[in-house]
Amino acid sequence: MLFFWVNKFYSSGTVGLVRQAEGTPGMHVDFRMMSDERDRVRLSDAFRLGAGVLRALEKQGARPRVLAARLSDRARRFGFPSLRNTALTGLAGMLLDLGGPLTDTLLERMIGDEVALNGFLDEAVTGV
User: Fold this and answer.
1) Residue 4: is it exposed, middle or buried by C-beta count within 10 angstroms (0-12/13-18/19+)?
2) Can you give the pLDDT of all 128 residues of the chain as single tens digits?
């Protein structure tokens, strides 16, 4: 898995107080990730650099199949080591391998299409 992040980000978010449904006070946090274009450019560059490394490995015959993916909150729960999670992620990996050329096509599309890459980043980037 290739994982990219921005250590010094320029984007800034907001924190505000809100009234919850029960009438109790609460807090609303909006990270506004990538609200500054410099952060988006750096992540796009990192994605393309990683894709370039994987392409070079492929030319040497050493690259496994690549799938651009994001980790949702639900998917992150499968990172906890357990027998059940090991079995489920193994099964999911086998199913993803069946995607074959389709996964390569999606990756190539994102590399060459700024709109597609930005859409992927908008969905994939998460806060702290």
Assistant:
1) middle
2) 667 778 888 988 899 999 888 888 888 888 888 889 999 999 999 988 888 888 788 778 775 666 666 666 666 676 778 898 888 878 877 776 776 666 666 677 777 788 888 888 888 787 66
